[in-house]
Backbone:
């Protein structure tokens, strides 16, 4: 166990050093150790990117459904307000989780600001409180659908991390929290908000249900896969996960086939022209993406934490890509 701990921590350190080198190249040497870089890490960049692209993607789909074509730049103020509310809510949720998981993160993710000591607990608490208030106030001023979407997301995020409920202790409820918020609540809530702003009066069209179902199921794969590299810390602190119950290989196989099912579903939607989207683009783009997934998945080493983390980031990149591919197919109709 001692050797495993050292190797696990070394893998995480190596990964973080690689990130630091990239950030230094982009922003200069002074960026390392910068408060804003620590805040960026505290915000969990992959979730920030995912949230940003979901805000943009649903906006573009709503624009594509307008009865008369309009420029995507016509409602930038409303788009920015929705982005601020969602990003602030995102930071609250991931920040609260880190506040409750400092001891676990010292094993699984020692580069995070609270685990590494870059932020004190008090600083973390201030950031979490401020972002929660900012999310709720911005959403309230922007419209009813956005407000309720943000409020429900924050409530579920709180129940996920905070004792005495702390749903992350239970595999089923933990996965349900993650894919219900990022899969259903965010997508449907954002579209209803944009529909209300643009006065579309469409309800929720089939094309939005297709994307929502894709993201919902895909997020389930992310939710179960994310615990594979965290197995050691979860075991030590009695956090039960599907990985601990079923093993790494079983969870990896399940996650890969779940994502495969998502892509096959979109390909069938394109082949049978079931949604208001460019069928040729939809089919070709998702066949290519599916092939990339399987090609990349054959290279993973489940005994190497760096390899696992790299593949986890890869499936997040495919998740990001969907919020560009699907709206593009809608705009091309």
Residues:
């Amino acid at each position: 166990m001692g050797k495993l701990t050292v190797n696990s921590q070394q893998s995480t350190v190596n990964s973080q050093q690689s990130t630091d080198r990239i950030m230094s190249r982009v922003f200069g040497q002074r960026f390392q150790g910068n408060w804003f870089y620590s805040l960026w890490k505290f915000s969990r960049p992959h979730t920030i990117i995912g949230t940003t692209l979901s805000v943009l993607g649903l906006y573009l789909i709503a624009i594509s459904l307008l009865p008369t074509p309009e420029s995507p730049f016509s409602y930038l103020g409303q788009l920015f307000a929705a982005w601020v509310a969602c990003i602030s809510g995102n930071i609250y949720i991931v920040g609260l989780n880190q506040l409750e998981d400092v001891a676990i993160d010292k094993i699984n993710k020692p580069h995070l600001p609270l685990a590494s000591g870059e932020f004190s607990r008090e600083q973390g608490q201030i950031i979490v409180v401020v972002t929660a208030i900012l999310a709720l106030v911005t959403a309230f001023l922007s419209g009813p659908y956005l407000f309720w979407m943000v409020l429900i997301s924050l409530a579920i995020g709180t129940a996920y991390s905070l004792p005495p409920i702390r749903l992350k202790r239970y595999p089923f409820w933990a996965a349900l929290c993650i894919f219900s918020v990022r899969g259903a609540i965010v997508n449907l809530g954002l579209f209803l908000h944009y529909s209300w702003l643009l006065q579309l009066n469409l309800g929720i069209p089939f094309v939005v249900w297709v994307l929502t179902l894709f993201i919902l199921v895909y997020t389930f794969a992310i939710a179960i896969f994310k615990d594979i590299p965290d197995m050691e810390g979860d075991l030590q602190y009695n956090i039960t996960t599907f990985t601990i119950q079923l093993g790494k290989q079983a969870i990896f196989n399940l996650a890969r086939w779940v994502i495969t099912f998502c892509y096959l579903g979109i390909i069938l939607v394109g082949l049978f022209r079931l949604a208001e989207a460019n069928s040729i683009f939809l089919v070709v783009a998702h066949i290519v993406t599916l092939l990339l997934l399987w090609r990349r998945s054959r290279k993973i080493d489940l005994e190497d934490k760096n390899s696992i983390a790299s593949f986890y980031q890869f499936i997040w990149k495919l998740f990001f890509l969907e919020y560009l591919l699907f709206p593009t197919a809608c705009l091309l109709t």
